[in-house]
Every structure is written in C-alpha cells, then in structure tokens.
Specification:
6-stranded antiparallel beta barrel; alpha/beta; 5-stranded parallel β-sheet; 26% helix; elongated
C-alpha cells in the first residue's frame, strides 16, 4: 500500500512495482488505516511529509493496531539527514528511502522483508458461485457488459472468467446478475490468468462498494 499525497509519485510506484505487486494507493492519510485494515497489505510505503498530517503519527497509528502492527513500513521522504533516519529507526520502520526513490534498492528490500516477514491474514476466500454482471471499457475503448460467475469470493474481491479482453488495473462496475440494476460497486483487475481454449480468468479487488456484497 502506498500513502503519498503526490499523484505523480504514486504513479511512479505503480509503474515500478506493479509488475510484481498488487498496488493499493491513497493520497488521504486519514483513510490509510481503514484501507490497510480492509486490504491487509504485505507492506506499506509511507511518505513522511504530507499536508495537515504527520507521517510519524500515521506510523505510530499503524503500529498501535493489532491488524497492522506487524506490517513492515517503508518510509520515503524528501527531507534527508541522519536525524530523520534515526527517528524512523526508532519508530521501527523496515527501511528509509530518500526521494527520488532508488526503486531497485526498494525492490531488493521488499523482497528481503517478504521472505522473512509473515503477516497474519484474517481474510478468507470461499469457493462460491455468484452470478455477476461486469460493465466497463476494454483496452480498445469499447464498452462491454459481461455476464459471469465467480469461482471464489472474499470480503474485498472475487475471481471469475470474463469474455472481454481486460488488462491489469482495468476498473469495472460490478452488479448482481439476478437482481438487475443492483450495483455492488467498482473493482480493479489485479491479476489475469490466460487459459488455453477458454476465457481468461481475472482476480478483482473492490475499489469501493456502494451496495451489499456476499461477505460482510
């Protein structure tokens, strides 16, 4: 999960890390805790200098909740200096990176932490067939409406086949197929699995939910 108020910086993180990691990002520090508790990220990249909010305070907040206290936090900041690094180490940060970020060094550190850190996850995936309707725009700019059924579901997403050719990060509207017009919310494609002789399967994670979902 990326927490940074700079849109350009968040795009850079998506560009450099999106191939190996599912990226959740926000420019609102006040929503960061809720997102972390919902999505249970493997790591958090946190900007220390954000308007009206201290990254240090947010770091302490993450560390104080049982659901997020074991998630490694990587601090990034444009403010350099030994004092800053020492303060981050005192908070328990997994690493400190100056801006502009050395993404190769960040990737290496993320890989190391991933091998040595186990983050407990309470989210459960259930094998359940749920008829859905997906609506959106494919990579060629063509609008589509697709009836499908899930292979499994979780609190924050689902896995299903889709006849429309989608790319990673494509956002679709999700409806219950048996109750026309009942919008569940919007979801982003986070993974795709091609299948020979069959429609590709896609993993979707909700961006937001405006209606009821199967799991609560």
């Amino acid at each position: 999960m990326i927490v940074d108020d700079d849109d350009a910086i968040r795009r850079l993180f998506r560009l450099n890390l999106g191939e190996n990691y599912e990226i959740i990002d926000t420019d609102d520090p006040e929503q960061a805790l809720a997102l972390a508790m919902e999505h249970k990220p493997d790591a958090i990249v946190l900007d220390l200098q954000m308007p009206k909010f201290s990254g240090f305070d947010l770091h302490r907040t993450f560390s104080s909740f049982s659901q997020t206290q074991l998630v490694p936090i990587f601090v990034v900041s444009g403010k350099v200096g030994l004092e800053m690094k020492n303060a981050c180490e005192a908070l328990g940060a997994a690493a400190f990176f100056e801006k502009p970020v050395d993404f190769e060094a960040l990737k290496a550190r993320l890989a190391t932490v991933k091998r040595h850190t186990i983050v407990p996850r309470s989210e459960v995936r259930i094998q359940l067939k749920v008829p859905l309707k997906l609506r959106g725009t494919d990579p060629d700019g063509k609008e589509f409406e697709e009836l499908t059924g899930t292979e499994n579901v979780s609190l924050s997403g689902f896995f299903c086949a889709c006849g429309a050719p989608l790319k990673k990060d494509t956002v679709v509207e999700v409806y219950f197929a048996k109750t026309p017009g009942e919008l569940v919310g919007t979801a982003r494609c986070v993974r795709l699995e091609p299948r020979e002789g069959a429609e590709p399967q896609y993993a979707f994670r909700f961006v937001n939910k405006t209606g009821p979902w199967i799991l609560k």
